[in-house]
Design a protein that fits this description.
- This protein has about 475 residues and is an alpha/beta fold.
- It folds into 2 domains: about 260 residues, no CATH class; about 180 residues, Rossmann fold (3-Layer(aba) Sandwich).
- The chain is about 35% helix and about 10% strand.
- The protein contains 14 helices and 11 strands.
- Helix 6 packs across helix 9.
- The longest helix is centred in the last third of the chain and has 25 residues.
- The structure holds 2-acetamido-2-deoxy-beta-D-glucopyranose (NAG) (3 copies).
- The site of one 2-acetamido-2-deoxy-beta-D-glucopyranose (NAG) has 7 residues, from loops.
- The site of one 2-acetamido-2-deoxy-beta-D-glucopyranose has 7 residues, from loops.
Length: about 475
């Protein structure tokens, strides 16, 4: 071909670009062929060359320039070091991942990954481009961001990794390192625990220093304390000083040995999550079990689905009142045989919950396990493989729509998060003093989050490019609502 002919072919291509329905895809195709050079942003990025593991199913031989880009929107959470950009070679395909926001509006940037705790509607990447998917990683407490618990908020995302089993890449057992962790023999024998009881230790331990939380746990514990002795060492409802040589590590992930042997002397541990949500279970549940103490648990309403067997924790919500719970604990405190039944799961054959066993066995990520990927890199690769699949399907469809149907759209829904409106830890909400800190904080936070989720949906549907317009949109929605009544 002469230069003129090549020029004409290109012109023809460019004209096609604006008329064919698969326009976006043609652009990507042309980039693949090197016809269309994307603007600069990438060229000033350094491509860190990493010796990455290429899975046996990955025969992706494309160069870095041809790979789809995944943009991590939360700069604080980029699971690579050093540098801002890397190539990842996943089980089936490869991608470029970056935290350089300059690529936000690029064609090649096919997915944006968000960290739930940092996700703010007024900082969202706008305008939202139709060819880009959004992926949400949110393993932390529901209290960190109620925007995601509202249907309009979560439906903005196409892929999720959350603690819910319904999520695309579930992190439900993220706080349980292994089966061996549960099987570890009790740190303190029952005989010894009983000796400590006779020496004046309470049957129940409470150790909490984060007091103003949506689950409102202190209100429940305060009531419980009227009916049974509870030793409380943390800042919340403190009634006992912690021995000087010990540090309050109740919120830390580390497991200081001296601290652990101190708390393991208690028969029962109050184990209450800071936020309530199905499948949200943390070390608060698993750590007492590791030590051989019986958790008195409130958090995930579906916790029973994950426990080693039907008798391994006391569930607060099984009792009509704190008083009834206290009676039950007292009975158990005086019945060694019955108490030990709660520790039977320390024998492997007594772990009968197949969902738990399968969950631990089938997860591809590890907890403190260097031989497995961590779940951040795992999710990143999950998104990479899904995006490459999707792009291939779109491409096939654009070439031959009769033969290849357009790929199904995919979006998250409330089953991926959907944590309920915070309610009082004890008693009806009407009886709570109007100046109560919890009352002033959490129900409001929840409903304001709904406004923000709806505001963001409005920004996106108006094709706004400035997320700071969020407040205006929320305001005008509120005006419309009150005007319409
Ligand atoms: C991703 O989610 C958005 C918002 O829900 C939706 O409009 C879009 O069609 C989805 N994209 C894909 C590829 O499923
Ligand atoms: C929510 O999403 C899940 C898949 O993630 C799907 O199985 C379920 O049907 C969806 N529910 C609704 C109400 O759309
Ligand atoms: C949406 O906004 C972008 C950037 O502001 C603009 O390029 C695009 O044409 C707009 N699309 C529509 C459908 O209004």
């Amino acid at each position: 071909m002469t230069g003129v002919q090549t020029g004409l072919v290109m012109l023809w291509w460019l004209l096609q670009l604006w008329t064919v329905p698969c326009r976006g895809q043609e652009l990507v195709d042309m980039m693949d062929k090197g016809v269309f050079q994307p603007q600069n942003a990438l060229s000033d990025m350094e491509f860190v060359s990493v010796s990455s593991y290429r899975g046996p199913g990955n025969s992706d031989m494309r160069s870095n320039k041809e790979l789809p880009i995944l943009l991590w929107w939360s700069a604080n959470l980029f699971p690579h070091f050093p540098g801002d950009t890397e190539r990842v070679d996943c089980a089936h395909s490869s991608c470029l991942v970056t935290r350089n926001r300059k690529v936000q509006l690029q064609r090649r940037t096919t997915a944006i990954i968000f960290y739930g705790t940092d996700f703010r509607a007024y900082e969202a990447p706008l305008p939202r481009l139709p060819h880009q998917t959004w992926a949400l990683f949110h393993e932390e407490s529901p209290m960190n961001n109620y925007v995601l618990s509202h249907s309009p908020g979560i439906r903005l995302f196409n892929y999720t990794a959350t603690f819910r089993r319904e999520s695309d890449y579930p992190l439900t057992l993220q706080w349980l390192p292994s089966l061996d962790y549960l099987l570890k023999p009790p740190s303190v024998s029952l005989q010894e625990k009983n000796r400590w009881r006779r020496a004046g230790l309470a049957p129940v331990l409470y150790m909490q220093s984060h007091c103003d939380v949506p689950s409102d746990r202190d209100r429940y514990v305060q009531e419980l304390m009227k009916y049974i002795q509870v030793d409380s060492y943390g800042k919340c409802l403190n009634n006992k000083p912690l021995p000087e040589h010990l540090e309050d590590t109740s919120t830390a992930t580390g497991e200081d040995r001296e601290f652990m042997s101190f708390v393991a002397r208690y028969k029962f541990h109050l184990a209450m999550e800071n936020g309530l949500c199905p499948d949200y279970m943390t070390e608060k549940l698993w750590r007492p079990m590791h030590q051989g103490c019986v958790p008195i648990y409130r958090g995930s309403s579906s916790v029973a689905d994950w426990l080693p067997n039907a008798r391994s924790a006391i569930l607060i919500d099984d009792f009509a009142s704190p008083q009834e719970l206290a009676e039950f604990i007292k009975t158990l405190d005086q019945d060694d045989e019955e108490y030990l039944r709660y520790l039977e799961y320390k024998t492997p054959s007594k772990i009968t919950n197949l969902r738990l066993l399968d969950g631990l066995q089938n997860r591809e990520w590890g907890v403190n396990d260097m031989s497995k990927p961590n779940y951040l890199n795992g999710f990143e690769c999950f998104v990479c493989d899904r995006e490459n699949e999707r792009l291939a399907a779109v491409k096939a469809h654009c070439r031959d729509p009769a033969k290849y149907p357009a790929p199904q759209l995919k979006m998250a829904n409330s089953s991926h998060m959907g944590c309920p409106l915070p309610s009082p830890g004890y008693g009806p909400i009407e009886e709570i003093d109007l100046n109560d800190g919890w009352l002033q904080m959490w129900p409001q936070d929840y409903w304001q989050s709904l406004d923000q989720a709806e505001g963001l949906v409005s920004l996106i549907s108006h094709n706004e490019s400035d997320p700071a317009l969020l407040w205006q949109h929320i305001h005008s929605m509120a005006m419309r609502r009150s005007g319409g009544q």
